[in-house]
Write the C-alpha cells for this entry.
Amino acid sequence: MKVVTCIAPVNIAVIKYWGKRDEDLILPINDSISATLSMDHMCAKTTIMCSPDFEDSKFWLNGVEQSLESKRLVNCLQEIKRLASAEPSNAEMLRWNIRICSENNFPTAAGLASSAAGYACLVTALANLYGVKTDLSALARRGSGSACRSIYGGWVQWHMGCNPDGSDSIARVIEPSIHWPEMRILVLVVNDARKKYSSTTGMNRSVATSDLIKHRACNVVPKRVTEMREAIKTKDFNKFAEITMKDSNQFHAIALDTHPPCVYMNDTSHAISDMIHAYNEHKGVNKVAYTFDAGPNACLYLLESEVAEVLSLINECFPSTVAKSDYLRGIPLNIEKSSDDLKFAMNLQVNEPNLLKYIIYTKVGEGAQVLDGDHLLTMVGLPK
Ligand code: DP6
C-alpha cells in the first residue's frame, strides 16, 4: 500500500489565458501570467492511495463520489502512468487500484479557480505516488489549463509553447513569492444567481466566433507579457495595475464579442471597477488593480499599506449585514478607520446592502506541496 497527500493553491491571472489551439492537449493561443495565492486561506487538498487489496478505484470530491471516466482525469492518469512505467520497479504498483479523495477549503460555488488548485493537487499527488520526476506543470495542464500555473509559487508565466505535442507548453516562475512581500489580494465574492458558462465552454466559443480574440493573441498579449514581466521584476505597481486592469477588460470584451456572448461580470462587478478607478484617480496614481475571471467576483491586487483604507472604502460603498467574523476571512485585520470622508471626496454612491457575500484577504504564496501525513483517507481507502 502507498499513500500521498498534497495541497495546492489557487492562482489569479493578471494576463489572462483565454482560448485553446488544441482541446485535448489543452494548448493555449497566448501566454498568461498569474500570482499564486497563499494556501493559508484557499487551497485544494488531495490524498491518493493505491493498494493490491483495493477491488476497485474510486474518487471523492468534497465528500461526493465522482466518475473516474472524465476525459481530463483519464488524460492526467494515463500520462502519469505512462511516465511511471519507464521505471520497471513500478510495474506491479501500476496495476493496483487507486482511491482519490479531494477537498477544497473554500466554497467551490464561489467560482474561485477551484479546478486550477484541484488539478495541480491531483497531479502533484499522483506524481509523488508513482515517483514521476518530470515537470508537473505540463501534467497539470492536461487537467485544466490554468492549473499548470498553480504548481509553482510566486509570479508565474505559462509559456504557450509552439510544439504540436505540447512539450514546451509549461509554467515557469518569473519571481518567487518573497520578491514582492508587500503585495496583497482581496477577493470580493459577489452575490450572483445567474447561470454560469464554464471557462472551457466560453473560451471554445470565443475561439470559434470572436474576431477580437485573434487580435489579442497575436498583437496584444506578446507585448503585454514583456511589460508585465518588467513591472513585476521592478515592482512598478502603477504599471502592474494598469496592465492588469486593461487585460481583464480586454478578456471581458472578447467574452462579449463571442457569439452568443458570455456575460461574466454583473452590475456589482462594474460598480467595483468604477470604485477602483475613482480611488486611483483620487490618489493620482494606480493604488489598486482589479481583475475578473469567468464570473462576477473581483480580485483586487494592492500593497499592504493600502489595505485598511481600501477595505473601509469597500465597506462604505458595499454595506453588509453579515457578521464581521464571517464576512472578512483570511489574514486577520482590524479596520477601525472610517473612509466616510474619502467616499464623499470621491463622490461615490452607497450601494444597496449585501451585494458582496464575503471578502478573503490574502497574499502571494507557494506552489503545490506534499504533506507529511494528515491524509483524507482511512487505511482501507475510504474518506475519513
Ligand atoms: C478566465 O483553466 O478553467 O480564469 O483549460 O478549459 O480548464 P480550461 O480553462 P480554465 O480557464 C481559466 C480562464 C480564466 C483566466 C486565467 O486563469 O488565465
In short: Residues 13, 16-17, 26, 32, 115-116, 144-146, 199-200, 293-294 surround DP6 (CB under 6 Å).
